[in-house]
TrEMBL record:
A single BP term in Gene Ontology: bile acid metabolic process
Uppermost EC category: oxidoreductase
Protein EC: 1.1.1.47
GO molecular function: glucose 1-dehydrogenase [NAD(P)+] activity
Gene source species: Lederbergia citrea
Superkingdom of source: Bacteria
The keyword Protein transport belongs to this UniProt entry's keyword annotation: no
Keyword Translocase: no
Record's protein name: Glucose 1-dehydrogenase
Length: 251
């Protein structure tokens, strides 16, 4: 198993890619700490993992709130003594709005969750990892962290920020045993975009058309890739965007 003896914390674990990664990490031997603002969804993910004999701790927390993030890490360290892998996955999207259609409140909220949340959680756990001389961050960005047109103006900005932040983490801390990878999925069939797929929204129809195979990715496929990236087998992958998009971003 690729993640035997590892402890992994995954945000946004109540749904979509967070849930899929949590399930796959647990199958690969990791003890998983699940976090989300959605307590009900979190309980469902916890049940799915426990039914499969996984070891799991669930914590309801908002990644954009420093006090939540602080107490989440305290609880995680109390329970498991360490966190080896931090998957910064929680994020929100404001449909496919252009800049003029995004309110200041929406902009601030997206930046708070998608960017500040990553920074807050990273800074909370980084000192512990530095003390151990080892730690891995899987920062779930998006191909929207490298191209435009796959989300709203604030979301695209936030995902570019996550990619940049990931590079800087590697630049500053790789020498101390830290790895940070920006995991960049293309269009994946999760609740974040399902409504738009079901409504045949032009923004997603165009995205599907731009995937050479015309197949939308599945959360499990992203989860398998994430497991590999988080594992010691990927130790030379650091500070880069790793795309999983079926070729969506090649043209
Ligand atoms: N689905 C896609 O096509 C796609 C493509 C590229 C990147 N991504 C990225 O993958 C990640 C997961 O997205 P998803 O598609 O599974 O979406 P999703 O909406 O299904 O899941 C996101 C989860 O984050 C949680 N969340 C929202 N705000 C939070 C907060 N403040 N604190 C803690 N948790 C919070 C939600 O409750 C939800 O459970 C995101 O970073 C997203 O940007 C998704």
């Amino acid at each position: 198993m690729l993640l035997q003896e590892k402890v992994a914390l995954i945000t946004g674990a109540a749904s979509g890619l967070g849930r899929a990664q949590a399930i796959e990490y647990a199958k690969e031997g990791a003890k998983v700490i699940l976090s989300d603002v959605n307590a009900e969804g979190l309980a469902e993910t916890e049940k799915l993992i426990k039914d499969n004999n996984g070891t799991v701790l669930s914590i309801v927390a908002d990644v954009s709130k420093k006090e939540d993030v602080h107490s989440m890490i305290n609880k995680a360290l109390e329970e498991f003594g360490t966190v080896d892998i931090c998957v910064n996955n929680a994020a929100i999207l404001a449909d496919f709005k252009a800049s003029l259609d995004i309110t200041e409140e929406e902009w601030d909220k997206i930046m708070a969750v998608n960017v500040k949340g990553v920074y807050l959680l990273t800074n909370e756990i980084l000192p512990h990892m530095l003390e151990k001389g080892k730690g891995t961050f899987i920062n779930v960005a998006s191909i929207g962290g490298t191209i435009a047109g796959v989300g709203d103006a604030a979301y695209i900005t936030s995902k570019h920020a996550v990619v940049g932040y990931t590079k800087q983490l590697t630049f500053n801390y790789a020498k101390d045993g830290i790895r940070a990878v920006a995991l960049c999925p293309g269009l994946i069939d999760t609740p974040m975009v399902q409504y738009a797929i079901e409504q045949d929204r032009p923004e997603v129809v165009r995205q599907i058309e731009s995937i050479p195979s015309k197949h939308i990715g599945r959360s499990e496929e992203v989860a398998y890739f994430s497991v590999y990236l988080a594992s010691d087998k990927a130790k030379h992958i650091n500070g880069v965007e790793m795309k999983i998009d079926g070729g969506q971003s090649i043209s």
